[in-house]
Amino acid sequence: MPKTSFKELLDAGVHFGHLKRKWNPAMAPYIFMEKNGIHIIDLNKTEIKLNEAAAAMKQIAKSGRKILFVATKKQAKEIVAEKVKNINMPYVTERWPGGMLTNFPTIRKAVKKMSAIDKMAIDGTFDTLSKRERLQITRQRAKLEKNLGSIADLTRLPAAMFIVDVHKEYIAVREANRLNIPVFAMVDTNSDPRNIDFPIPSNDDASKSISLIIDFVTEAVAEGLNERKMEKEKDAAESKAKKAKAAAEATEAKAKQPGEKQAEKKSESSKAEKKSEPSKAEKKSEPSKDLSEEKKEEIGETAAVTADNTKKAE
Question: Which of 293, 50, 292 is nearest to 186 (CA)?
Answer without folding.
Answer: 50
